[in-house]
Design brief:
- It is a single chain.
- The chain is of the alpha+beta class.
- Among the domains are: about 1-30; about 310-410, PAS domain (Beta-Lactamase); about 415-485; about 515-695, 2-Layer Sandwich (Heat Shock Protein 90), CATH 3.30.565.
- The protein has 18 helices and 24 strands.
- The strands form six sheets. Strands 1, 5, 6, 7, 8, 11 and 12 form a seven-stranded mixed beta sheet that branches.
- A hairpin with a 5-residue loop joins strand 15 (about 370-380) and strand 16 (about 385-400).
- Helix 12 runs antiparallel to helix 13 and helix 16 (about 560-580) runs antiparallel to helix 17 (about 635-645).
- The N and C termini lie far apart (about 160 Å).
- About 25% of the residues are buried.
- GO terms for molecular function: ATP binding; phosphorelay sensor kinase activity.
- It catalyses: ATP + protein L-histidine = ADP + protein N-phospho-L-histidine.
- It holds the Pfam family SBP_bac_3.
């Protein structure tokens, strides 16, 4: 029995030992995962945050922070002192575990993870004390010294692009430049009340803080993906007590002075003497400043007085409705030589009765609302009784402790006269324009009526000739018939010429008055041009002139007025025939240009001189003078052609060289009307109508 009990005790003891061993092993494994030593990359010249002291040891606010952190968390800290650029590379390459403290930015976030914020850092601009500057804009041309890798450099370049920067490789290079007198302003980081940078940078003894440009939180940086280490650092920062952080800060914020009783008395006495001296100097300085400011105030008052006196505008002050101050310009405007006579008078005495109520209300509102009123135009009566126009603006001021109104007046009589003169001129011009338009309307109407009156008897004469021709055609024998036939053809051709001239005059008049309307339908433009060309081909060839029609497409539907297009082509062909001698050629071509159609009428005739090419499309203008030209024409045809083309939203232009022929090119948009608008009915003019149209258009070519 005893053996059983002993065996059980041994068994239970072994089980307890095994359990404790497993638990202890687990604890060792967990503890082995935590780093017992952290390598921290530190800047070697970032005072007062991280630098190497004269003994060669790391020192600074951040160094003390990390020492306190390591002590709190039971972690050994190893400081790796190097340049700023190397600190980033060491963390990136794994040569250091932690960066001691830096600002977050997107570029660094590509290879680092950041801890929670643990300390705020101020970045300020320090300038030499002998430089008179209020803010950073006052030193924009001096050149602010900043290290190449300092965050302040990028901040200033972004937010103050107009401020000149002097970029140096490191803080040490900046301080060397300060020693040499090359840098008179620079960017330095500081911590809370530690604004006296000379404590850490003796080179800056003659510098003072101009202003803080930003305050940013520092974070710890670790290599990207090292979440376990980052969690350890964040937890460690949270474990640090408020007192621990204050101890780190107080060491650098305050200077502890241990004094004996006698030294305290000496210290107080010395401080008191210094304060008395300072107060005495300050009193003397303030007296000097008061004298200087009084002198400046007197000079300023004199300047303002001179400015008021020399102002071309009248300036006066009213207090309780009476004038208490006035400049010479007011006397000039009111016609009073001695301005002193205006003192204690009411300005309303000079205001025209029609404006007194408005002006009085203006003065009352200024005092009531304490505001400025814009210019009010009114009439005033000068001392000699002359009535003039003035512009007046009023403002509420205080004069000798009492509410008053400041008024500025300007004589605008001359301007009013000029405006009235311009108004009358404008009215006269408008009247003349209406008369001119009415004259043009009457002229157009008269011209149209006369043209119709000419056309009526010509139609009767032409109809009579055609009737006689039909009568003589049945009896074409005899000598008298041959004479009659000869002269009747001449009469008929001249009737056609007069009809053509009258038609052109009527259409020109209709174009001017806006009554010539195009009858747009969808037509095959190639067929329209080809048919009208072939209809006159025989006549052209009878003149020993060849005519050639060509096209690069067989069909091109566009919206156009076919009758007027034919009229345009006949006019151009008529010109080509007149100016092309026997043996010459005329070419008519149609080109499809997708969104437009080009029609070319080209001849090998005499051409048109360069100096005449600009006028041939003008109304009643021809290339040859009236009494010198060898060919007939009124000078209306090409002008009418241009107008018809433009009514098709197209254009016509000329390529010509004297004695080498001419080419007229028409460009018409390839627009197509919708099915509901289009009318492709075969209502083409009959053959007789087309022959008569050709006879009319070709009537100024003798021998038709």
């Amino acid at each position: 029995m005893k053996n059983q009990i002993r065996n059980r005790l041994i068994k239970y003891t072994l089980l307890v030992i095994i359990a404790v061993s497993i638990s202890f092993t687990g604890c060792l494994q967990r503890e082995s995962k935590d780093p017992v030593k952290i390598k921290i990359a530190c800047e070697n010249n970032w005072k007062p945050f991280s630098y190497v002291n004269i003994e060669g040891e790391p020192e600074g606010i951040l160094i003390d922070f990390w020492k306190a952190w390591g002590k709190t968390n039971g972690v050994n800290i190893e400081f790796k002192m190097t340049s700023w650029a190397n600190t980033l590379d060491m963390v990136k390459n794994g040569e250091a575990d932690v960066h001691l403290g830096l600002f977050y930015n997107d570029d660094r976030a590509e290879y680092m993870d950041f801890s929670i914020p643990f300390m705020d850092i101020m970045t300020g601009i320090f300038v030499k004390k002998d430089i008179n500057a209020w803010d950073i804009n006052d030193i924009k041309d001096i050149g602010i010294g900043v290290s190449k890798s300092n965050n302040a450099r990028f901040y200033l370049q972004k937010n103050y692009p107009h401020v000149k920067l002097s970029v140096y490789p490191s803080n040490k290079d900046i301080m060397d430049a300060v020693k040499d007198g090359k840098v008179k302003a620079l960017s330095v980081d500081y911590y809370k009340d530690l604004k006296n940078t000379a404590l850490h940078y003796p080179e800056l003894n003659e510098f003072q803080l101009l202003g803080t440009i930003y305050i940013k939180p520092l974070r710890v940086g670790v290599k990207k993906g090292n979440e376990e280490l980052l969690a350890l650092i964040d937890d460690g920062i949270k474990k640090m007590s408020v007192n621990q952080l204050k101890d780190v800060q107080s060491k650098w914020q305050y200077i502890t002075i241990n004094l004996t009783r006698q030294s305290a008395i000496n210290y107080v006495l010395g401080v008191s003497i210094i304060i008395i001296i300072i107060l005495l100097i300050n009193t003397l300085y303030l007296r000097h400043r008061v004298k200087v400011n009084v002198k400046r105030l007197e000079e300023s008052q004199q300047s303002y007085k001179s400015l008021v006196e020399l102002s071309p505008d009248g300036i006066f002050v009213q207090c309780e409705g009476k004038i208490v101050f006035v400049n010479k310009a007011v006397g000039k405007i009111l016609g009073e030589r001695n301005v002193e006579n205006l003192i204690n008078k009411r300005f309303l005495e000079f205001v025209h009765p029609d404006y007194k109520e408005v002006v009085q209300k203006r003065f009352d509102d200024v005092q009531k609302l304490k505001t400025t009123f814009s210019i009010l135009e009114e009439k005033i009566i000068k001392t000699n009784g002359e009535l003039i126009d003035v512009g007046m603006s009023t403002n509420a001021i205080t004069h000798k402790g009492k509410p008053a109104t400041l008024t500025i007046i300007r004589d605008i009589s001359q301007r009013k006269k000029e405006e009235e003169k311009k108004r009358k001129i404008a009215e006269e011009e408008q009247r003349l324009l209406k008369e001119t338009l009415e004259y043009e309307r009457l002229k157009t109407e008269l011209f149209s009526n006369i043209s119709h009156e000419f056309r009526t008897p010509l139609n009767i004469i032409l109809g009579s000739i055609q009737l006689l021709n039909s009568t003589y055609n049945n009896n074409s024998q005899g000598l008298n018939y041959r004479y009659y036939k000869k002269y009747s053809d001449i009469m008929k051709q001249n009737c056609y010429r007069q009809i053509r001239l009258i038609n052109n005059l009527i259409d020109i008049t209709r174009i001017d008055s806006g009554f010539l309307k195009m009858k747009f339908k969808n037509h095959n433009i190639v067929e329209v041009v080809e048919n009208i060309t072939l209809s006159v081909a025989a006549y052209i060839e009878s003149k020993e002139v060849s005519i050639i029609f060509d096209t690069d497409t067989e069909e091109k539907l566009i919206s156009c007025d076919a009758d007027n297009i034919e009229r345009v082509i006949l006019n151009l062909l008529s010109n080509a025939i007149k100016f092309t001698g026997p043996g010459g050629s005329i070419y008519v071509n149609v080109y499809d240009r997708d969104d437009k159609v080009c029609i070319s009428v080209k001849d090998t005739g005499i051409g048109i001189p360069k100096e005449k090419q600009q006028i041939i499309f003008e109304r009643f203008r021809q290339a040859q003078p009236l009494f010198d030209r060898e060919r007939e024409g009124s000078g209306i045809g090409l002008s009418l052609v241009k107008s018809i083309v433009e009514l098709h939203e197209g254009r016509i232009y000329l390529n010509s060289e004297y004695e080498n022929g001419s080419e007229f090119i028409i460009e018409i948009p390839a627009n197509i009307k919708g099915e509901e608008e289009s009318d492709l009915s075969q209502d083409e003019p009959c053959k007789e109508d087309k022959v008569e149209m050709i006879n009319i258009e070709f009537s100024d070519i003798y021998g038709l």
